[in-house]
Design goal:
The complex is a heterodimer of chains A (116) and B (109). With 116 residues, chain A is an all-beta fold. Chain A is 0% helix and 55% strand. Classes of the chains: A mainly beta (116), B mainly beta (109).
Chain lengths: 116, 109
Amino acid sequence: ETGVTQTPRHLVMGMTNKKSLKCEQHLGHNAMYWYKQSAKKPLELMFVYSLEERVENNSVPSRFSPECPNSSHLFLHLHTLQPEDSALYLCASSQRLGGTGNQPQHFGDGTRLSIL
Amino acid sequence: QKEVEQNSGPLSVPEGAIASLNCTYSDRGSQSFFWYRQYSGKSPELIMFIYSNGDKEDGRFTAQLNKASQYVSLLIRDSQPSDSATYLCAGLGSYIPTFGRGTSLIVHP
């Protein structure tokens, strides 16, 4: 039980499809994050929300659209993705922005996305 | 460009040996450093953090920080096969952590 739940765990979609990834945290945290994890590459921060307001958009293409309706839920809407977008998408949350040693980021198990 | 560099490995050590994982960072503004362990198909899990120069020990794990050399390391004593995983190093400056690509550790019996 990680406290951060992501659905679906696996997603296969065509380049013209529209889908959404969902993240829910049960930890009462104030900050939530989307990361992209590709093989042999560092974890890439995509978006950061603090108290439902976006505080960071790390030059992510517009085909990725985040939504944070409340502090417990985070979505990533996907539209006309490219094959290079195939990766593991991780959601994380923390009590404070960036996390601390005593209150670190907690990660979900991720959604494995494959673009055909 | 803030970067955290790690050798991707794999680092292979025999059971019972000391595993040494290394990380360098470019952002001198980074104040805190984290080591996460990630098993295949699972989420990263924080195992150590350090923000002062020197060593910090927690059980079989020791984190070492040298801010002058911009170097962070993680030592795992008495390595076990269950320690086999990818270890991610991250630095935190303002509020956005920067991660390395991770080092794969294999502990063989």
